Amino acid sequence: MLKLTSPDGKIIEIQPKCTGLQVAEKIGPRLAQAALGIMVDGEVRDLMRPIEKGAAIRILTFKDKEGKDILRHSTAHIFAHAIKRLYPKAKPTIGPAVEEGFYYDFDELKITPEDFPKIEEEMGKIVKANYPFERHDWKLADVKKHEGNNPYKVEMASEYVKKGLPLTAYKDGDFIDLCEGPHVPATGYVKAFKLLKIAGAYWHADAKNKQLIRIYGISFPSDKELKEYLALQEEMEKRDHRKIGKELDLFTFSELVGSGLPLFTPRGTIMRDELVALSEGLQKKHGFQKVWIPHITKIDLYKKSGHWDKFGHELFLVKSQETSDQFALKPMNCPHHSRIYCSQARSYRELPIRYYETTTIYRDEKTGELGGLSRVRAVTQDDGHIFCRPDQIEDEFENIMSMIKQFYGALNMTFTCRLSFRDPKQSEKYLGDAKSWENAQAILGKVAKKLKLDHFVAEGEAAFYGPKIDIMVTDALGRQWQCATEQLDFVQPVRLGLTYVGADGKEKVPFMIHKALLGSVERFLSVYIEHTTGKFPLWVSPEQVRVLTVSEKFSEGAQKLVHRLNAQGIRAHLDGSMETINKKVRNAQLMQVNYILVFGEKELNGALQVRTRDNKVFPSTVEKFIADLKKEIENRT
Questions:
Q1: pLDDT the model gives residue 255
Q2: The whole model's pTM is what?
Q3: Is the dihedral of CA 260, 261, 263, 264 positive or negative?
């Protein structure tokens, strides 16, 4: 008998070679119904594979990320099966589960979204047949036998063999595919699915290779969940920041400027400036000093900091016509701020030293990964760095968290905290020794507990130089976005030669804390635009008031009112066009102007009828209207 420990601490006895599904049934029939896979000692496996050894088990359902991945990877396999039935000459390459469903890349396949219903119908037949997923151990000769006319599969198999990795294939019905798995027990487990879109993708993500066709899809354990997902997608389309940004004239892109390089209009720039002003105001209040650095630097700086080895391929390189030095557009600011710190000798009495700067960095992102403001090549950060002693770390994290709470409170947005830690299984991705990482992560855990933060731990999400507390902001649709961050860095101070003289007269190395409230201004705006659907609160709104003339004879009086509002710091504009009042009101509401004033005979005497963008109307006077708006702006309500 084998003794296994379940997540709730129960000891389960099973016969040797008992399958994961039998284990699930032993724990409970309800769990067995929902089971999609099993984790044995941290290894994700098929339910049908026998368990020969293992001390800890976990049954995976759709609530688990690993369970979702199993279901969706299985759906990708069913999709490839359907494609081969309908398009026998198509060459499947890879079909992984991804965060938003799954995709499969093919060569020699020409389809359009109009073909999706036919393919989905064929997938439905495979699901209805409830073919079992059979796992086969292959050798390279088996791959060549079954996949000999598919150079992509043979290439992948050859690479696996070179690395000493096993080859496996999965068969359902008359279709077999080189695949790592794992899969659900049978095709009938996939209850609801839909193909979503088509894109292009280069083999191995290398533009020098052939471009393949990539088809994205989604799947769920029930039709109800699929319908809810599709309704959410429809709402997301309505909220798409690219669509709203164009409608509200906030930003644009130009092919002549380049992909991923947004241009902000006067209206969009107002929003940027207001958000940055809030961030910078909080930083000044909390003891940060403003600095300035150039946009290019010698790459020697990044080689010394460690960034070159980790991110050198993401840098825009700049060639000097005067010297042999190699330069780059800066992809981050921390090494530069460290040079300001190092410009003079430091004493323990000076610490903490806090610098901040709102500045643009540049990353050579792949064209296919760019998307509106969500991912750009020119990223503006409200960046800041603290140089402190070990005994000051907790207070500094508390100081930053105070700013974060005030910032997102002003925006009426909630968040949770992700403690982004190192993945111990991939230690080569990080700089520094294991003990230093454990100590740093323990400090962040203590801070989260002390501040009673709503938090969770995510291994593998740390920066290469240290762990982080990432702020996961929740939008109106319940989606989470990583925006603000506070990061503990014990690597760069050593590499960059940062020191201070301690109370004992000895030279010591400070800790470095990285912080951002907005994070990327562009990415935050993409989140905020979708969160609000463009209905911005008054303080951040690009156009707070629009004055509409009833006829041309009231233009002078209306213009005086606009000037008076502007003089009080209220962003007001005049619509003196020849359109009807109803059309003018509608235009202002479509542009999400907070308050709309129709200006006619009564308004010449100071009486106002104020209309909101949501069509509420109330009386006021010019004096009261100005006082009320100034209070609303000041309170950021």
A1: 92
A2: 0.81
A3: positive
